[in-house]
Design brief:
Blueprint (H helix, E strand, L loop, with lengths): L1 H9 L10 H12 L6 H59 L1
C-alpha cells in the first residue's frame, strides 16, 4: 500500500526521457501496427517485462547459489557419515577386546 501511495505522488508530474532514434522508431512501429494504443503503453509494457526479467534472473542466480550450498552440505554430510561409521567401527573393535 505504501508503494501505491508513493507511485501516485510520482505520477502527478509528467515524465520525459530522451530515447535513441532506433528505439523511437520501434516504439512508433509498435503503435502503428496496432499492437499498442500509444507509445506510453509500449514503454510501460517494456519496463514491466524488464523488471520481471530482472526479478526472474535474480531468483535464478539465488537458486544457483543455493544449489552450490546444498552440494557443499551434501559433501560435508557424506564426510561426517563416513567419520561416524569409522568411529562406530572403532567402538566395536574396542568392545570386542573387553
Amino acid at each position: 500500500m505504501i508503494v501505491m501511495a508513493a507511485a501516485k505522488r510520482l505520477c502527478k508530474k509528467p515524465t520525459s526521457y530522451k530515447l535513441p532514434v532506433d528505439i523511437e522508431v520501434l516504439l512508433h512501429n509498435a503503435v502503428e501496427s496496432g499492437e499498442y494504443n500509444n507509445t506510453s503503453d509500449v514503454i510501460t509494457a517494456a519496463l514491466r517485462f524488464f523488471f520481471q526479467h530482472r526479478d526472474i534472473k535474480q531468483v535464478k542466480d539465488d537458486m544457483s547459489l543455493l544449489k552450490i550450498d546444498i552440494h557443499e552440505l551434501n559433501v560435508k554430510n557424506q564426510s561426517m557419515e563416513q567419520h561416524l561409521a569409522d568411529l562406530e567401527a572403532q567402538i566395536k573393535v574396542l568392545q570386542s577386546r573387553k
